Amino acid sequence: MAEKHASIFRSLQYFNARLFFAGLLLSNIGSWLQLTASSLLIYRLTGNAADLGYNVAFQFLPMLFLGTWCGALADRHNRDLERPAAPAPEPLSVAAIDAHAHLEIVTNTEPDSPEVAQVIEDAAAAGIDRLVQVGYSADQSKWCVRLAELYPGKVLAAVALHPNEAPVVANLEADLAIIEELAKHPQVIAIGETGLDYFRTPPELQEVQRESFKRHIAIAKANNLALVIHDRDAHEDVLKVLEEVGAPEKTIFHCYSGDLEMAKYCVERGYVLSFAGTV
Questions:
Q1: Backbone angles phi, psi at 107, to 5 degrees
Q2: How far is CA 151 from CA 50, 130, 163, in A?
């Protein structure tokens, strides 16, 4: 039964958001037509330009903005879209490390591609002299290690199965064995991103997720590596697992999203909290 749920979940998880927003966009198109027709009818019947202006300013334009925004969200997972590079920022006054990068998502290329080289060069120009390329699947973790091999002194790697990946892979044991082997590589400094994510994983698959998290913790401790945690809508269970099996000496909450009390709890135990875009 769990395998059946995993298969169905894998088939749907990448399309749900796009289908939702596509439907919402189509609904907005119908509403735009209705508003346009009603606005023009009011104007013809009353001759009141103020009523027409009100409809355009407070109904039509906001809905147009909402529809455009939803369309952009629907395409946010499409890596085939051409996205212009952001303007180069002012260089940092002090060199820094990007502790959580996904260059394969930025470039959608192989580790030895010119596009990857350009991103690393641009980062250095902005004051980011090193970065940690973070894993989320067995194959992509291999990508991370290969990148670190190509850029010694500039790129380090973290390897793991993302919490949303673990319950739906074809062979969890085989993938964990790959992560366990990659963890021994000298360029690997962390196990991550692992953890729990109850936002996208349904209840019937969450136990597999918890077991995968425990296995990743064991791999991190066995190799004296940092643990990079992805925690979404699962704060209580993440802390419970860490207490149950014992957290590694270096434990990092990537993109921390808990409250103040949880933050105090984590700091008391020496965990590192990343305050990123969600805060």
A1: -105, -25
A2: 63, 10, 28
Q: Which residues contact 64 (CB under 8 A, 6 or more apart)?
A: 28, 32
Residues 6+ apart with CB under 8 A from 171: none
Inter-CA distances, 42 with 34, 51, 94, 222, Å:
12, 7, 61, 73
The tens digit of pLDDT for each residue in 102-138 reads 999 999 999 999 999 999 999 999 999 999 999 999 9
Between CA 101 and CA 147 the distance in angstroms is 12
- Residue 79 phi/psi, 5-degree rounding, is -80, -5
Per-residue pLDDT tens for 185-195? Answer: 999 999 999 99
Cα 115 from chain centroid? 21
CB 270 within 8 A of CB 235: no
Of the CA atoms within 13 Å of residue 29, those in its CB half-sphere come to: 8
> How many residues belong to the chain?
279
Q: Cis link prior to 121 (omega < 30° from 0)?
A: no
Can you read off the two tokens belonging to residue 100? 């959580």
Find where tokens 């088939």 sit. Answer: 11
* Cα angle value 91/152/271 (rounded, 5°): 70
H-run or E-run covering 251: strand 251-254
Q: Are 264 and 271 in contact (CB under 8 A)?
A: no
pLDDT in tens, 62-85: 444 444 433 333 343 455 566 677
CB 230 within 8 A of CB 207: no
Q: How far is CA 124 from CA 119, 128, 132, in A?
A: 9, 5, 13
Query: If you ran DSSP here, which 8-state letter would residue 85 be given?
Result: P
Token digits of residue 80: 């085939």
